[in-house]
Protein: anthranilate N-benzoyltransferase
Amino acid sequence: MVNEVTVNGATKTTNGHAFELKVKQLGKPTLVQPAEETEKGPYFLSNLDQNIAVPVRTIYCFKSEEKGNETAGDVIKDALSKVLVHYYPLAGRLAVSPQGKLVIDCNNEGAVFVEAEAECKMDEIGDATKPDPVTLGKLVYEIPGAKHVLEIPPLVAQVTKFKCGGFVLGLCMNHCMFDGIGAMEFVNSWGETARGLSLNIPPFLDRTILKSRDPPKIEFKHQEFDEIEDISGTGELYSEEMEYRSFCFDSKQLEKLKMKAMEDGVLKKCTTFEALSAFVWRARSKALNMKPDQKTKLLFAVDGRPKFSPPLPKGYFGNGIVLTNSVCPARELVENPLSFGVGLVQEAIKMVTDSYMRSAIDYFEVTRARPSLASTLLITTWSRLSFHTTDFGWGEPVLSGPVVLPEKEVILFLSHGQERKSINVLLGLPGSAMKTFEEQVTDM
Structure:
């Protein structure tokens, strides 16, 4: 495959030619409503949903020599109507409650569905595992003129047929509707419906089980919301042209990282996630040339489903993840052995208990604060999510992944390879910082 670097969203190949994907929409967008009568009225979103009301755009690439793509749009659209009976809030619209919080108005308006065709074969779009807002963005329908999250329906789907007989399902789904686990369960349920199967994991719709306490009880510091002063001038650095890269860590490299984290005897054990998170946090802080006294924050999501007491029900439809954090001066992170950073990650994971999560829910109720991303790295982990198992009748996707990273502070972990034992680390950095980051990965 031709080596590619994505610069500000334009894919440039090593021979200097920029590839432009041409996609033609077939007819007007349609609204897909649930196949049966569903409940109407306001649908409660918990405080864990309120904090991450951002559209997430993903693609799923399918190819089947026998089936081709002629019926793909009809099959997926028909299955969507049926699965929306179970997931009816996705057919509603975002609204603001009298208390100033997001809710879903279950008005049965319908999910937006679009069919399109591309003037090329699927292979020609290049490495679809790397965020590329210009090329991959054409595979996900954008609501014309929508400037605010309230103007974008919770679910927008586009099926794009390619000349090779393959097709891509492009989705735009609001994160307030579900976290990665919930989204995976929904898309897999949609696939099961398309194949005439009953749902393996029906959704549990009642989010009021995560209501804030009355009165609220804030028992922890919640540094995830703290604003950190940028004394290193990283804001200016980000005015440079951005590069988006994908770094693949295979099982041997991941094992090597874990051994490196434990070589000084400070840690007795260490997971792949802990070692990789500490490594990229440290490497990114070095790459951004942070001053020694610059405080840097690491944010990452922990699955709270099993940690709540009682645990959240199976199939919980909503966000069951909680952001945890660690803050330290860049000098300590960069100059200490890898075990230091791993220790901070481990402490952040241990912090997530039922009382911590209830405290975070109550903290938002009182302050309406959003987590600050100043001088922060936010790691999002999709490596444990089985998006690759989605099957609408054309087999599992040959590729799946995000269209774009939501913020410049975000790094995404995706599983990679046939056995899913490798991890792709996707990130965007200013050009000069990316060079330094790459050197550290190479010297690992």
